[in-house]
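Record type: monomer structure entry
Structure origin: computed from sequence
Chain ID: A
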Amino acid sequence: MRIKLKIWRQKSRNASGRFVSYPVENVNPDMSMLECLDVLNEQLIQQGEDPVAFEHDCREGICGSCGFMVNGVAHGPLPATTVCQLTMRHFNDGNELVLEPWRARAFPLIKDLVVDRRSFDRIIAAGGYISVSTGSAPDGNAIPVPKEAADRAMDAAACIGCGACVAACPNASAALFTGAKMTHLGILPQGKPERDVRAIRMVAQMNEEGFGGCTNIGECTGVCPKEIPLEVIAAMNRDYFRASWRERDNVVTTIRPFTEWSTGSKLQVDPPSGR
């Protein structure tokens, strides 16, 4: 196969970017999209050019590291598939594929197809965990959990945090991601004690990051590689409205988003004003 890749190239966040077209010869139909980029990068390196930067790790559709737009669709045209699982057999010989990064204010670009998704990490840090002591791993039947609740929790927990939902949403909303991370904890017995505080803090941090509001268009769940159901957004809204009343006297603190990027950079909360 012969494929033409039209890729967004941008050296840094503050540099100007543009699309650059690259022909790739002898593409094996069994290659994944990332392997096709590997082949291209080998060619670019041999020619003394800068290789295309893209993020990856497990290449098995589990880690959530990879992700970019393929012909305007997050992760490409195949439903329930990450871009690392998307094979070239789903395209025709001579096709031109347009590759570009996630486009969202809360996902500032780092280089080429790589964006900064630390905003997701800060949402999780705000409340996406269980801090109460639950002891060691109990016997499976020690805490009765209804089958329906267990299934819903597992469906929500499948979220890998890739960011496709944000990229596909016209509002760049993170409601599906935040709803999934709240729901998989909130409906289980271990997560119920902190359910209200979790809802308040995670939604507050989501808003602080600059994500758009959800208007129930549904593009997010349509491109989600793990097919997270839209109902997690309804669950998030329900938990947030209830918690807003119960926790109305408590002050909610958030972490200010930061966009600096350097090797070894760590999460830091801003010092008090006046320093």
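Annotation 1: The longest strand covers residues 3-9.
Annotation 2: The helical segments are 33-46, 118-127, 147-157, 164-168, 175-186, 195-208, 219-223, 231-246.
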